[in-house]
What does this fold into?
Amino acid sequence: MMSDLEKFQERSNLLQPFAMSRSRGWSYVLGWTHRITGLFLLFYLLLHINTLSTLTEPEVFTARMAVLSGPFFSAMEWLLAVPVIVHSLNGGRLLVYELFTTDYDDLLRSWVGIISVVYLLLLGYFMYLGDQSASPMFFWFSAMAIGLILSYTCARRLLRTRGSIFWKMQRLSGALLFVLVPAHMLFMHLNHSVGRDVQVITARLSQSPIAVIDGILLILVLYHGGYGLVGIMKDYFTDRRIINTVSWIALLILVMFGLQGVALLSSF
It folds into this structure.
């Protein structure tokens, strides 16, 4: 009889694109889409941290935002929601499949598509309407509460497995990010000045609870992205020395950007 860990590993293998390459079905497509969107979002996060670091130089930040406020970049900003929501929802699908041993993967794939379209339309609608009044405290504490409830549910299932602590942390971070990342993008477009006006941003970050939530989000995304990056490298490199070298370089880069983000949050 198979142990819980062996069952989890078997299910995880079924989710890998190479294991499904013979069928070339939707699971294969989603598997590769998940990897590509994950790499794209990790790169975007580093770029985002670099841009926000200029908040200490208001003139520089305002000049960058003036360039990014044009119609083309506004359209690109809306399209950014595509990898965000697809990666989040497909990650949720994988969590449900792995942790709750469901046999309704076809239904889950359909819901990934349906909710992705609904989210994109909703975000576009808010962007069309313009600024909406939204309390940062209420919004983020609500989002954090939902994320923690989901994470607690996943943690109870993870405790029954014998996977590594890093593997478990990857799943738990994914459960929280499933809520927090789409919520972050939605909140930024409820009030457009939240992400573009220096005074609004600094006033928001000067609130300790909001700064703490942003710090948690930053650390979760960097860990989740770094773990996923190492996992992808292991699929392409067989030499252990190459894997270790590239992994340490990636870790160093992520830590540097993480410290830059934490320093920014603590400066207000």
Summary: The radius of gyration is 19 Å. The chain has a mean pLDDT of 83.
